C-alpha cells in the first residue's frame, strides 16, 4: 500500500539562466524601447539643464537644484546606457540591476517633479522652457520606472535569458 503522506503527483521546476559574461558592443540596444527611452531621458535632462544654465538667474537656488537633478539624471542614465551597450549589466548579472533602476527612475522622476515645479512659476522664459523639459523627463523616467516594476515583478533579468520549465509527473498509487 502507498504511503498516505506522500502525494500522488509532484512538480519539478527548472530555471536556466543563460548569460554571456564577455564584454562586447551591441548597437542594437539603442533600437529597442529600453535604449530609446534612455536616450530620450538623457536628451530631455540635458536640454533642460542647458535652458536653466543659459540665463543670468542660473545661480538662483531653484536653478541650482534643477541643474543638480538634471545632471545627476544625465550621468547615471548615461552610465547605465554604456553598461547596457557593452553588456556589462549581463556580465554582472547577480547584481539586482532592475531593482536599482526601478528605484533610481522613481526617485529621479520625483526630483524632476519637484525641480520643475520650483522653476516653472518664476516667470523667466528659459526657466519655463527648462520646466517643460523637466516635466517631460519626469514622464520618461516614470514610464521607465513602470517598465522596471513590471520586469521586477515578473523576475526578468536586466540582460540575458532566463528560461523556466515546469514538468509534472503523475504516478498512480498501487493497491
From TrEMBL:
TM segment ranges: 39-59, 65-86, 98-120, 126-147
Membrane topology value: Multi-pass membrane protein
Principal cellular location given in the protein's record: membrane
Subcellular location(s) per record: Membrane
GO cellular component: membrane
Keywords, alphabetical: Membrane, Transmembrane, Transmembrane helix
Ranges for domain MARVEL: 29-153
Protein name: MARVEL domain-containing protein
Organism: Aquatica leii
Lineage of origin: Eukaryota, Metazoa, Ecdysozoa, Arthropoda, Hexapoda
Amino acid at each position: 500500500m502507498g504511503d498516505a503522506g506522500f502525494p500522488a503527483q509532484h512538480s519539478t521546476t527548472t530555471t536556466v539562466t543563460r548569460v554571456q559574461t564577455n564584454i562586447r558592443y551591441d548597437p542594437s540596444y539603442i533600437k529597442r524601447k529600453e535604449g530609446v527611452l534612455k536616450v530620450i531621458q538623457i536628451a530631455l535632462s540635458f536640454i533642460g539643464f542647458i535652458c536653466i544654465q543659459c540665463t543670468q538667474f542660473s545661480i538662483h537656488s531653484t536653478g541650482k537644484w534643477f541643474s543638480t537633478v538634471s545632471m545627476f539624471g544625465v550621468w547615471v542614465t548615461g552610465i547605465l546606457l554604456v553598461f547596457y551597450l557593452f553588456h556589462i549589466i549581463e556580465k554582472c548579472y547577480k547584481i539586482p540591476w532592475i531593482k536599482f533602476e526601478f528605484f533610481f527612475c522613481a526617485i529621479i522622476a520625483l526630483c524632476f517633479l519637484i525641480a520643475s515645479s520650483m522653476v516653472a512659476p518664476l516667470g523667466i522664459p528659459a526657466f519655463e522652457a527648462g520646466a517643460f523639459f523637466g516635466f517631460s523627463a519626469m514622464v520618461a523616467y516614470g514610464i521607465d520606472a513602470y517598465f522596471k516594476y513590471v520586469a521586477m515583478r515578473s523576475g526578468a533579468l536586466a540582460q540575458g535569458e532566463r528560461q523556466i520549465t515546469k514538468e509534472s509527473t503523475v504516478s498512480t498509487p498501487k493497491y
